[in-house]
User: Which sequence fits this backbone?
């Protein structure tokens, strides 16, 4: 049985974007906590985590990338997810790694969304660059995704299966200068890269 919202609820939902925070709802709904609780129970909205919501009834469900970057801004998608996005690896990851300057990160700071785990990792401000602007999120460039993967994982999984033909080697070696020497050593050891 589908529940249809009343006119006041529809009016409030129309004023909210697809992804919104509790503070956004406070501007349009008196007794915000009650509004959010009832709207979530009736599945007009969906709670991502504390204070972050999806206006799913009127505006549908956004992509994993949009949600990941929205929850802990500023942020960009990287590692295996970005490698797959750019066609460097054909393996479909089940974890979307989101790199952020936000301090709320770590293993206990993962969020599950549509069967995908969004994992957050903090990075130094000097490394927070070399990502591409998409419609409503940012994603690491192919070269940056390789370096972030080495930085966070210690190596690149299934290196022999990677499609590296479209990598800008000069850019990769330029960017890697900002990373620790452990990352630089791994990059120098990559055989298929040149």
Assistant:
């Amino acid at each position: 049985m589908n529940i249809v919202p009343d006119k006041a609820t529809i009016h409030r939902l129309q004023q909210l974007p697809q992804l919104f925070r509790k503070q956004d709802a406070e501007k349009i709904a008196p007794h915000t906590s009650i509004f959010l609780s009832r709207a979530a129970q009736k599945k007009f909205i969906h709670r991502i985590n504390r204070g972050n919501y999806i206006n799913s009834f009127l505006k549908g469900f956004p992509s994993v990338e949009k949600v990941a970057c929205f929850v802990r801004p500023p942020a960009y998608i990287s590692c295996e997810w970005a490698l797959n996005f750019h066609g460097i690896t054909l393996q479909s990851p089940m974890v979307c790694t989101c790199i952020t300057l936000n301090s709320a990160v770590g293993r206990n700071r993962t969020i599950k969304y549509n069967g995908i785990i969004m994992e957050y990792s903090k990075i130094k401000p000097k490394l927070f660059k070399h990502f591409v602007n998409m419609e409503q999120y940012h994603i690491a460039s192919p070269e940056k995704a390789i370096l972030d993967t080495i930085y966070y994982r210690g190596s690149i999984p299934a290196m022999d299966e990677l499609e590296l033909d479209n990598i800008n080697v000069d850019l990769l070696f330029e960017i890697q200068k900002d990373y620790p020497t452990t990352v630089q050593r791994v990059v120098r050891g990559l055989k298929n890269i040149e």
Residues 7-59 form one domain. The radius of gyration is 20 Å.
